[in-house]
Each structure stands twice: as structure tokens, then as C-alpha cells.
Amino acid sequence: MGKDPDRTMIKQKDPPSGDMAYTQQATNLINALIKAKKNLRMYPANHPVYEKTVDDLCSKMSSILEEDTIKIRINQYDILYEGEVIYHSKDRDESLALLLFKDGLREMTFFKGITRSEIRDFLTIISLDFEKEVLDDDIVTLLWEKDFEHIKYIVDDSLILEDRGYEDTAVKQARGAAGKNEKIIKAYEEALSQDKQAKVNIIALTDNDIQTVVEEIEQDARDKSHMLIRMLFEMFHMAQGKDEFELIGRCIRETLTFALHNARIEIIDYALKEIERSGVASAYPGEAKPYLANIESYINTANFINLFGKVLDNGAEIPDELLITMSSSLKAVSIPHFIALLGALDKSTSRRNVIDILAVVGKKDIALVAKGLNDKRWYVVRNIVYVLRKIRDRSAVEYIILTAAHADKRVRKEAVHALG
Fold first, then answer.
1. Is 247 buried (19+), middle (13-18) or exposed (0-12) by CB count in 10 A?
2. Can you tell me the distance from the alpha carbon of 354 to that of 338, in angstroms, rounded to the nearest whole number?
3. Of the candidates 138, 27, 33, which has an alpha carbon nearest to the alpha carbon of residue 72?
4. Are 236 and 292 in contact (CB under 8 A)?
5. Model confidence, pTM
């Protein structure tokens, strides 16, 4: 008798356009996403704060979407709900609106029933640094791959470039620039030092010396790979006969494999530099050179490079300077193996490392790098264009031009950037 039947009916009606309560909910949703996005960039995926951030966002989104579906419109610098601006930012690095808009997203809808897995995956995608971490994907591609059930979106698939004539202009200018050169540099000469090196007197180790070294190694709990590799290279000076040279060479290869398993890239770099030094007169005895060449060939094999890729995907952090200096000692024969890695690696950071390597070793045979443009996978082709762009050699222009008409717009976009 004391109940008001109209009140119950009002709660069941759809809210009118611009309803303040739902506008505030939409605003809260965007604010929650932005806050969570910042937290995820600060912590690794296995950090407790990372998971707590996801849990907090799940709780908030579930509450917001409990009674209504939230549909937002996306402009270049604004996010709108029911025609009202609920977010505005022109910050190039932090604007959520710009991040979504530049990849073609124009509308997003979040539905009731969204799962924790969906929220976590969506949050991970928008938290990526697409300039530094992700080279071969964009937000739309990553959303499409996840095939969300409770997140829908509308994409403007028109030409990404603002100036429709820019692509044609860039290609024409590149053709003209290439045609004016009678000869195009296709490789870089490697100069070896011609300075005469003083002869080094090698003193054989006594039994007591060897015992002392063994005791020091046993007392030191740190990784001994670097010490071992140095000793093995020194043994080349004292080796006599084919059997000893083969034994030392095999030990060095096994040590390099062990070092790579443990992400000790500086040991690989040391070995390559020592092999380069063998080209200088008197650095190593002539009998050792074929075995040193065999070690160098091993480092450039598909098996060794594939192991390198697995180490990268397992999270190995390699300083950029070390990566560059090691790459400068690799041979052109390694190029196809690194290109194959681009299509096999799971992590964007790993692919970036391989791209940096190819940008260095690729200078030794640009035509061999360009063969990667024939790959059927668009993301591999896009990465090869990026490698050619980083090499910055005019001989790469003729190959990049061919990709300006590629079927995938993301490859065309990268080609235009490279040509421009």
C-alpha cells in the first residue's frame, strides 16, 4: 500500500540522452582506464602492483557496466559520450584519444558481462608503447586478434595519411633521386688495422700455475665463462698438431653455446673480436686460423642464431652498445637467419633487437636484406622496410620503391616514411 509503482518502472527505462549519471559513469570509466594505463607502464607483468591495477579496474568497470552499456566516440583529441566531451588532451605521448584515433578507431562500446581476461588484454594493448615496443602491429590489429566478446569498435579504414598525394610524390622523388646516380654503393669496406703489432712472448704455465688458477676458480662462485674463453684463445698459441687445435676449437664453440644460454653476449662479442684480430699479422699462429674461421662460421649459423632468438624471447636484456658492437663483427651470411627470426619471435622487444642487428650487419649485403621483402607475411615485410630505412644507404631506395604498392596499407605507410 505504501509503495510507489511508478518508481520501479522509471528504473527500468533507458536513460535519456545526456543523462548526468550515465555521463559521469562514462567519465569514470575513461579516468579509470587512463590511471590503470599509467600504472601498467611502470611495472612488469609479474609485479603485484600490475595485477592489483587490473583487479581494481575490473571491479570499477563491472560496477559501471552493471546497468548500462557505455558507447564512446573518439575524435583526435577528445572522447565523447552522448555528444558531450568527457575527455580532452593534446599531449602527443599521453593522450588516450590520440592513441586510439591515429590508428583509425572512431567508436568503442563496452558491454555488461566483460571478463577480467578481456579487461587485462585490452589494458595491455592500450598500455603498449607503439613507437618503441611495437613495430609490426597497431591497436586495431591487436584488438582484432583478441576478438573480444564484450568490447566492440568501429574503425575508419580510409587512407591513413593526411595528404593523399604524399605517397605518389615521395615515390616519384625517390625514383628521380635513384636515377641520378650512375653507381650506388652496395656495401661498406671493412678496414683492418695495418699497424704492426709487437710480438708477444707466451710463457707456458707450470703445474703450480695451473693449480693456482683452478683454486681461484673454485673459490670464485661467479660465472667463469669469460675467464674460460680467454684461456682457450690463449691456448691456440701453445697448441701443437691438428688434434689439439680441433679440441680447443670444439671447447670454444661449447663455451659460446653455454654463454649464449646464459645471455652472456659480451663473451660472443669477445670471441668475434679475437677472430677479427687473427687477421692481423702475428696475432695468432697460421695453423690456428682455419679453426678460428670455423668458430666464426658457427656463430653465424642458423642454429646459433635461433638459440639467440630464444634467449631474447626469454627476456634477456642486452645493452644497445653491446648489441651494435657484436653485430658489426657478424658476417653477411647471418642475414637470412635473422630475417627468419623476425617472423618467429613473440616479443616486440626481441624483434626490435633483431632489427637493430640487421641494420648493422645488413650494410654488408643490402641486396640480401631486401630478399626479406618477398616474405608473404606483411609484418615481416614492414620490418624489413624499417631495416632498410635504418641502414640509410641510397642503394636501398630501389627495393623500398617496390613496396610502395604493397597490398597491406601498413607496409605502404612504412615505405612512404622510408622514402620521405
1. middle
2. 7
3. 27
4. yes
5. 0.52
Per DSSP bridges, beta strands 105-110 and 70-74 are antiparallel
pLDDT at 234 over 70: yes
3-state secondary structure of 292: helix
Instruction: Say how many CA atoms lie within 13 Å of 172 toward its Cβ.
Output: 5
Listed in sequence order, the DSSP H helices in 43-95 are 48-64
| Residue 187, C-beta contacts closer than 8 angstroms, at least 6 positions apart | 363, 364, 365, 366
| CA count, 13 A, side-chain hemisphere, 403 | 35
Task: Identify any residues that bridge with 152 across adjacent strands, giving them in sequence order.
Answer: 109
What mean pLDDT is predicted for residues 374-403?
Answer: 89
Nearest residue to 175 (alpha-carbon basis) of 186, 167, 187, 163: 167
CA 317 to chain CA mean position, Å:
12
Secondary structure (3-state) at 284: coil
Q: What is the pLDDT of residues 28-62, one digit of tens each?
A: 888 888 888 887 777 777 777 788 888 888 888 88
Q: Does 157 score more than 70 pLDDT?
A: no
pLDDT digits (tens, 9 = 90+) for 61-118: 888 887 678 899 999 889 998 889 999 988 887 888 888 888 888 999 988 888 888 8
Q: Which three cell numbers stand for residue 305?
A: 642464431
Residue found under cell 575524435: 75
One DSSP character per residue, 148-212 reads -SSEEEEE--S-SSSSTTHHHHHHHHHHHHHHT-SS-----PPPPP-PPPPPP---PPPHHHHHH
Taking alpha carbons only, the member of 66, 10, 7, 63 closest to residue 32 is 63
Cβ contacts of 28 within 8 Å, gap of 6 or more = 60, 64
356's enclosing H/E stretch is helix 348-361
Contact 140, 50 (CB under 8 A): no
**Positive or negative torsion for Cα 234, 261, 269, 285:** positive
